[in-house]
Backbone:
């Protein structure tokens, strides 16, 4: 029972992590395309 519960938790964590990673990627892209919000935009 503990093993199946652990697998369920791992799947939930993986799903939440993928969603968080995707949200971070979108936010980073939006942050990169706005030069006024990126102090070192000319260097990247």
Residues:
């Amino acid at each position: 029972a503990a093993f199946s519960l652990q697998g369920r938790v791992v799947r939930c964590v993986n799903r939440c992590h993928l969603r968080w990673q995707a949200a971070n990627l979108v936010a980073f892209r939006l942050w990169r395309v706005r030069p006024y919000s990126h102090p070192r935009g000319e260097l990247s």
